[in-house]
Amino acid sequence: MEFYQIIKKPLITEKSTLLRETSRQYLFEVDRRASKYQIASAVESLFRVNVEQVRTLIVRGKLKRVGKSFGKRSNYKKAFVTLKEGNKIDFFEGV
Q1: What is d(CA 19, CA 26) in angstroms, rounded to the nearest whole number?
Q2: Domain that holds residue 13
Q3: Going by DSSP bridges, is the β-strand pair 51-59/25-30 parallel, antiparallel, or unpaired?
Q4: Which of 6, 51, 52, 55 could crosslink 40 through cysteines, CB 3.0-4.6 Å?
Q5: Is residue 79 part of a domain?
Q6: Helix (H, G, I), strand (E, B) or coil at 18
Q7: The domain that contains 8 carries what CATH number?
Q8: How far apart are CA 87 and CA 58, in angstroms?
Q9: What is the spatial distance between Cα 58 and Cα 76, in angstroms, rounded to a whole number?
Q10: Is residue 65 part of a domain?
Q11: Pairwise CA distance, residues 11 & 36, whole Å
Q12: CA Rg, the chain, in Å?
């Protein structure tokens, strides 16, 4: 897989902002088939930083109702990427 296929988008929430400021962790939505090693190498090559640790989880989609019918949002995989001391991703600064 290409690096741009592994990392789908950054997750910018209140929790991710707090984690970024306190513990050098960045959140990304990643491809469901990607391994931790692939995620780490994709972040290192795309943002030119050193990755210390990658933790992943699968977020289950919520059930949503529109009128009488029910639908379900898609499941997706979330990655918590911890960077080594002194590294940061400038993409998130100013957001």
Answers
A1: 7
A2: 3-86
A3: unpaired
A4: 51
A5: yes
A6: helix
A7: 3.30.70.330
A8: 26
A9: 6
A10: yes
A11: 17
A12: 15
Long-range Cβ pairs for the range 66-75 (8 Å, 24+)? 75/32
Measured CA to CA, the distance from residue 57 to residue 68 in angstroms comes to 32
Closest CA to 95 of 25, 15, 13, 22: 13
**Residue 92 is assigned to a structural domain of this protein:** no
Number of domains in the chain: 1
**Parallel, antiparallel, or unpaired for β 76-83 and 51-59?**
antiparallel
Structural domain contains residue 94: no
Per-residue pLDDT of the chain (95 residues; tens, 9 = 90+): 899 999 999 999 999 999 999 999 999 999 999 999 999 999 999 999 999 999 999 999 999 999 999 999 999 999 999 999 999 888 766 65
Residue that the structure tokens 């209140």 belong to: 14
CA 2, 33, 78, 22 dihedral sign is negative
* Pick from 27, 33, 41, 31: nearest CA to 81: 27
Tell me if the pTM is above 0.85. Answer: yes
